[in-house]
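Box 3.1 A note on notation
Throughout this textbook, protein chains are presented in two layers. The first layer is the amino acid sequence; the second is a token string describing backbone geometry. Keep the layers aligned when reading.
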Amino acid sequence: MSKQFIWKKGAPFFLLLFLLVVWEVITRVMKVESWLLPSPSAILKEGIADFDRVFEQLGSTVQLAVIGLIIGSLIGILIAAMLHLFPKVKDAVYPLLILSQNVPIIVLAPLLVIWFGFGILPKIIVITLVCFFPVAVAALDGFRQTPYELKHYFHMMGAGKKELFWKLELPHALPFLFSGLKISATYSVMGAVISEWLGAKEGIGVYMTLASSSFRTDRVFVAIFIIMALSLLFFSCITLLERYFVSWKRKENNNYDTRNE
């Protein structure tokens, strides 16, 4: 194992560790009040002490994030396929998709409560709205960037629009699609936490709200670190799926790097 490989894989960890050490030193030297900015050691101590309670809240957030991510991703893929297969529909709908992302979710959330109540539906809608757009845009770009030469070859072979989409355009768009899924995977956790601010009874968002209202800044940071860890976990899961479904692309890149060495 080369030193370059170790540095490439370990550099983010060492940087994070360095920042935590600097944070710890500053809070101790400057004697910062814990309610204003707790030290990393105090946050860790509180996280361990309150682990059972945090773990109980975690399941609700994960469930919301997973359901919202799946629904949002499916809707994003369907929208991208529809806009790609029907260009006239794309001309009319695509600008509206962009406009939909200009409405802040935190502003739209109270309206969803008024329309759909305090159940799970408005929460799923919030996460879906956050997740579908990156997937739709990434997939649409993947469809659009399919090489013209390959399309021409398929047409020469007598392939129809259906065969062209399923056997060429969709496989070619997979790397783009997974890029969008990675973004949506991280957004889904954020969307789940925001949705829990709508009046949920449990979840990391509720835990954070209660901690903030009682000036327990250490617990707020515990929630923040959990949200970051969940986002990283979701991102890693999508990356593993990408390695499985787009293994041909990785082999192609490896062969390209080998030829250039």
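The longest helix spans residues 161-196. Residues 40-246 form a domain with the MetI-like fold fold (CATH 1.10.3720.10).
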